[in-house]
Amino acid sequence: MAKRLINKTLLVLVGTCVFNAAQALDAPTGTVILEVAGNISQTNVGDEAHFDKAMLEALTQRTTNTSTPWHDGVVSFEGPLGRALLEAVGADGEQLNVVALNDYSSKVPVSDFYDHEVILAMRADGQPLRVRDHGPLFIIYPFDETPALLNEEVLTRSVWQIKRIEVK
Length: 168
Known about the structure:
Layout: H1 2-23, E1 32-38, E2 49-52, H2 53-57, E3 61-67, E4 74-80, H3 82-89, E5 95-100, E6 105-109, H4 110-115, E7 119-121, E8 123-124, E9 127-128, E10 138-140, H5 152-155, E11 162-167
Parallel strand pairs: 1-11
Antiparallel strand pairs: 1-2, 3-4, 4-8, 5-6, 5-11, 7-10, 8-9
């Protein structure tokens, strides 16, 4: 009986180690376009998680067809779900500080990424978002699906040219 209990305990410990190792982030092999820091459990560069384009494309993707105040008409945005990014890094916090290339920053509640189909858009109408097009990453809310999101508070959370997200 004691031997069986020890074997089960070892099996659980080994399984936990294998599971945690499987959850670890690979190191980016391309140019890093996003850094995630703060209260995260999965890292790949020191205590941060760095993502290249391929790593972001490997996350669960979504296409959001919506109009925005910054575009003419409806645009088809594509990119990883915000919640998929948070899950990939093991985020544990209530707020995100999203920082743009020009150091503009905005506070975004973590709940936004779970309550709405928020994406980190990498493409618009099939074309990669360049810096001059609000890229490489642009927080897009499903404004047309949920018109109540089209308000000043949420618009300030729609950061473009994202370079860093800090989980608090």
